[in-house]
Amino acid sequence: MARKTARPGRTLALLFLAIAIMFGGIAFAGTWKPELGLDLRGGTEISMTAKNTEGGSVPRESLEEAKTIIDQRVNGSGITGGRVTTEGNDVIKVSIPGTGKVQQETAERVRQTAKLRFRLVACSPQRPCGSGDAGAGGGSMIEDPSGGAAPGTSPRAPFGSETVSASEESEKGSDKDAKSDPSPSASASAGADSEKKKSENSVVKVDDAVKFMRNVPQEWATAYSSFTCPTPGSKPAEDIAGKPLLTCDDDGMPYLLTPAVIEGTEIKEASYGIPQQQANYVVTLDFKSDGNKVFADTTGAIAGSGEQFAIVLDAKVISAPTADSRISGGAQISGDFTQETAAALANNLKYGSLPLDFPEDGIQTRVIGPTLAGNQLTAGLWAGLIGMILVVIFSVLYYRAMAIVVIGSLAVAGALTYGMILLLSETAGVTLDLPGVAGLIVGIGITADSFIILYERMRDDMREGRSMRVAVDTAWVRARNTCLASDAVSFLAAFVLYVFATNEVKGFAFMLGLTTIIDVLVFFWLTHPLTKLLAGWGFFNKGHVLSGMDKRAIGTVDAPTGTTLVGGKA
């Protein structure tokens, strides 16, 4: 079988075409400057004061757990450069760089207190209070991944950043809680306030929730009949786990829900995707052991009846599916999901529940300035520029005309890196901070090293008597393995730093990993093809004194008579 002929010109053409397409997309987006990090640009700071739902001081463990969950929301989908810290015994501060679209969405997601609970639907427009049958609805359902699904109501997947509040009538009823609250807890004595509060903040048994759902007390049925969904921006409804809840969904449909049966903290994992042999997105849930048992009991209690259970986020219904059988283990919520709505629902289920309450009046937002002076960025950029100039000067003095390969590799690597930063900044909220600039500067040396390895391998082969055209191919095999091993070590170091280091170092680790990947692409798609292309020119393969491939440069000035030197016929 004939050996495939290398075509360096075509490889170079494909590389520059890819670069042109990338920058064409950037031009279409109209973004030519990357988002800078907190240290260089500043951003938005959100201060959240926690409250213990059971009274007393805020447990340190709960505060740290809430910090971890919020950090996952801020930095879980990209290198946003956000910082989440605790202050004192009850304050979490979130700093988000920039003011772009992604940053605004992140800020809104952080501001959501994200109290996630599962309740049964007692009353809805499709299901009158106390009715045993749900009305006809759309295609939302909850199903066991192993098979089986029952149609139910229309999906509640799309949800906005505003929290739907309780109606004015509901608020008045809440204010008169001690006098006319229709819930069973209204009859508790004043001397047992602490026990009452503890009971109200606890989920109820599935049997009790089912009993309420199928036999709605008249007081709650009357309250539901007069309930209207409030306008966005109003005071949020008070979501107490052990009490029924009057609320709405994003479509303005009112619901009367039973006391909560599962807290969102029982969710172990939530993800979204398109299962095999299906065409629509689904959201997959996995519960912890305790939550799994309760979830199985809940779906078993309503299986095949058309009755619904609601997933409630910050007192708002985001999904209200039905079940056709008892489901133990993982479950899937399906409906008319798009990729965006499925991802949003999965993220809220996965990162939605906080172990503490953050009342709205304890959340403050302010604009903050950069933590470093503007000349720090200028100094970092000058350092990178000076480093690149020194590399170019060294390459010209040592490699002469072959320095074209080094300069070309640095230029293309710089263009690819800058383009990728712009794209990631626009699509994933990646920001460039001073540690990130340092990671980019380190990448200059990585790109130059790749050429040096190839060139020195070529010189070794040419000293053994091979021509330049042959030496390019023989040296490439050994240089390729060396560079891949070196880049693998660099990428592994960057990966370890990114996973285990603090947020302040993540920017450096990310940029180091990015430049390492780009170095591999440039080495394969530019350094080798360009060197092979130059080897076909007489100026180089005949050993011109300025080519960098003459006898003195490769160390064969004193070679024995008859030794094949530069410009061999092979």
UniProtKB/TrEMBL annotation:
<feature type="region of interest" description="Disordered">
    <location>
        <begin position="126"/>
        <end position="202"/>
    </location>
</feature>
<keyword id="KW-0653">Protein transport</keyword>
<keyword id="KW-0472">Membrane</keyword>
<dbReference type="InterPro" id="IPR005791">
    <property type="entry name" value="SecD"/>
</dbReference>
<keyword id="KW-0812">Transmembrane</keyword>
<feature type="domain" description="Protein export membrane protein SecD/SecF C-terminal">
    <location>
        <begin position="363"/>
        <end position="532"/>
    </location>
</feature>
<dbReference type="Pfam" id="PF21760">
    <property type="entry name" value="SecD_1st"/>
</dbReference>
<feature type="transmembrane region" description="Helical">
    <location>
        <begin position="476"/>
        <end position="501"/>
    </location>
</feature>
<dbReference type="InterPro" id="IPR022813">
    <property type="entry name" value="SecD/SecF_arch_bac"/>
</dbReference>
<dbReference type="InterPro" id="IPR048631">
    <property type="entry name" value="SecD_1st"/>
</dbReference>
<keyword id="KW-1133">Transmembrane helix</keyword>
<feature type="compositionally biased region" description="Basic and acidic residues">
    <location>
        <begin position="193"/>
        <end position="202"/>
    </location>
</feature>
<feature type="compositionally biased region" description="Low complexity">
    <location>
        <begin position="181"/>
        <end position="192"/>
    </location>
</feature>
<keyword id="KW-0811">Translocation</keyword>
<dbReference type="InterPro" id="IPR055344">
    <property type="entry name" value="SecD_SecF_C_bact"/>
</dbReference>
<feature type="transmembrane region" description="Helical">
    <location>
        <begin position="404"/>
        <end position="424"/>
    </location>
</feature>
<feature type="transmembrane region" description="Helical">
    <location>
        <begin position="507"/>
        <end position="526"/>
    </location>
</feature>
<protein>
    <recommendedName>
        <fullName>Protein translocase subunit SecD</fullName>
    </recommendedName>
</protein>
<feature type="compositionally biased region" description="Basic and acidic residues">
    <location>
        <begin position="169"/>
        <end position="180"/>
    </location>
</feature>
<comment type="subunit">
    <text>Forms a complex with SecF. Part of the essential Sec protein translocation apparatus which comprises SecA, SecYEG and auxiliary proteins SecDF. Other proteins may also be involved.</text>
</comment>
<dbReference type="InterPro" id="IPR048634">
    <property type="entry name" value="SecD_SecF_C"/>
</dbReference>
<comment type="similarity">
    <text>Belongs to the SecD/SecF family. SecD subfamily.</text>
</comment>
<feature type="domain" description="SecDF P1 head subdomain">
    <location>
        <begin position="247"/>
        <end position="355"/>
    </location>
</feature>
<dbReference type="Pfam" id="PF22599">
    <property type="entry name" value="SecDF_P1_head"/>
</dbReference>
<feature type="transmembrane region" description="Helical">
    <location>
        <begin position="436"/>
        <end position="455"/>
    </location>
</feature>
<keyword id="KW-0813">Transport</keyword>
<feature type="transmembrane region" description="Helical">
    <location>
        <begin position="379"/>
        <end position="399"/>
    </location>
</feature>
<feature type="domain" description="Protein translocase subunit SecDF P1">
    <location>
        <begin position="64"/>
        <end position="122"/>
    </location>
</feature>
<dbReference type="InterPro" id="IPR054384">
    <property type="entry name" value="SecDF_P1_head"/>
</dbReference>
<dbReference type="Pfam" id="PF02355">
    <property type="entry name" value="SecD_SecF_C"/>
</dbReference>
<comment type="function">
    <text>Part of the Sec protein translocase complex. Interacts with the SecYEG preprotein conducting channel. SecDF uses the proton motive force (PMF) to complete protein translocation after the ATP-dependent function of SecA.</text>
</comment>
<keyword id="KW-1003">Cell membrane</keyword>
